[in-house]
Amino acid sequence: MNLIQSVEVMRQSTPLKKPFKTALRTVYRTESIIVRIQTNDGRVGWGEAPATIVITGDSLDSIHSAIVNTFTPLLIGKSLLAYERILQEIHLSMIGSSSAKAAVDMAIYDLVAQNCGLPLYQFLGGYQDQIETDFTVSVNSPKEMGEDAIRYVQEGFNVLKIKVGKDNLLEDIERIKEIRRCVGSGVKIRLDANQGWQVKDAIRTIRRMEDLGLDIELVEQPVKAGDIEGLKMVTDHVETLIMADESVFTPIQAFEVLKNRAADLINIKLMKSGGIYKAQIINHIAEEFGVECMVGSMIESRVAVTAAAHLAASKKNITRCDFDAPLMMLQDIVVGGVQYDGRVMTFPKAAGLGILDVVQSQSAVGS
């Protein structure tokens, strides 16, 4: 009957190899809620939601509460054959809690694809069977960032995402000059300001980098998330591509950004959209406007990244990926799922997400 029988919720916490520093926060370990949904025929679907309070507003406690107290009563006994109804009910059941919704959403999609006997990327569209990720260079001194960049390139990454926006603008320019000097011209460089610049400062800084010939592929979220007019002003006054990230959580926000031509690209994250269901809508809207999308991730394990990677591989309009977070962790808690060969990510032949188990999670905190 494919009925949902149980929902188990666990917490995991894993140290990072090196602190992850952006304009918004410094992270020393991944902390997330792992969701395990089982059906009456024994199948298991996996999901995950990291606590990213400064971006989504979701804490471990709020994610746990939403899943256990609000979503689980809606899920128990429901048939996966009506997964559209299940996902609609989840999204309508409460305002916000996008990360908690994403965790349940990806577990549902995992189970539905398993029921169909297909890897999730094939169930969603199957555009390609492997993808490539960039690697992120955290905000530090220009010297340290240059050394990090060299190491990542030596490990096989040819696209670097550079965090900026934390200190003064001149320091940001020096950071990028040093990284470009260290890695040469054959490596793509993307910048992510995480809302750290003012509008006019962003325009001046990006233009200066253009004048210096630093060859920046794109700049992600240069200004505050809610400042769509400011985002458009930056987009209109520089030649470098501008990507909206924190400005776009929902399909409606995507439509507003796209309608106003406020950005050249959209960064979709499952933790912002509330999962694959709404993420697909955002991508379809962007595609109709002729705007390509990236799929990115928070600091999360290979559970959530596997789900996001399946989405990214399934769609033609998703042309960029930012899935390096699991490579930053000291331990890998996932058995199965998407696999890394340097920057190349490949998918298991198993149905669904292909995740077999999640280990070293801390004790269960609800069911």
TrEMBL record:
It comes from the Bacteria. Its EC number is 5.1.1.-. It is an enzyme of class 5 (isomerase). Residues 142-241 form the Mandelate racemase/muconate lactonizing enzyme C-terminal domain. Keywords: Isomerase, Magnesium, Metal-binding. InterPro entries: Dipeptide_epimerase, Enolase-like_C_sf, Enolase-like_N, Enolase_C-like, Mandelate_racemase_C, Mandelate_racemase_N_dom. Signal peptide: none annotated. Binds 1 Mg(2+) ion per subunit. Its cofactor is Mg(2+). Belongs to the mandelate racemase/muconate lactonizing enzyme family. This is Dipeptide epimerase. It comes from Paenibacillus aceris.
